[in-house]
Amino acid sequence: MHMLSTGKLGLSVGVDNYHMPDKDQVFNDELEGMHQNLTNILAENPHYPAMLVRKRSDEAYLDFPEDFFDIVFVDALHDFLSVKVDIVNWRSRIRSGGIIAGVN
Ligand SMILES: C[S@@+](CC[C@H](N)C(=O)[O-])C[C@H]1O[C@@H](n2cnc3c(N)ncnc32)[C@H](O)[C@@H]1O
User: Fold this and answer.
1) Model's pTM, two decimal places?
2) Atom from ligand 1 closest to the CA of residue 57
3) Does residue 28 sit in helix, strand or coil?
């Protein structure tokens, strides 16, 4: 795909809203810290082709055109319905021959 055919690293996009309403403040403070760390790392490496999208996955896919990504890795909410919605939404954003994968 893009990386294999061009030898260049394509754009990496990290989608996460960094907030889980069913978790406590300590957990959500940790998520906030992760977002800050990642933001700092990207600011220190401006040439690295990566961006963070701070949105829920069921909103963020609308920010991208169809047939855009080579690979999508699903790892947001892990209940069946949320994973199913993520697969349905994000598969439209993957190029023909691309990969959708996930965890759990
Ligand atoms: C299920 S896990 C993924 C764990 C992560 N892969 C790791 O190794 O730490 C929790 C992450 O999913 C994010 N998350 C929860 N609900 C989300 C949603 N609807 N859309 C996008 N991200 C979500 C949380 O903010 C949290 O960072």
Assistant:
1) 0.91
2) 20
3) helix
C-alpha atoms less than 13 angstroms from C-alpha of 76 in its C-beta half-sphere: 26
Q: pLDDT tens for residues 5-46?
A: 777 778 999 999 999 999 999 999 999 999 999 999 999 999
3-class SS letters over 17-47 = CCCCCCCCHHHHHHHHHHHHHHHHHHHHCCC
The CB of 85 under 6 Å from ligand 1? The reply is no
- The letter for the amino acid at 35 is H
> Residue 88: CB partners within 8 Å, gap ≥ 6?
none
| Residue 18, phi-psi category: left (phi > 0), alpha (psi -120 to 50), beta (remainder) | left
Domain map (residue ranges) of the chain: 2-102
Q: Whose CA is nearest to atom 26 of ligand 1?
A: 18
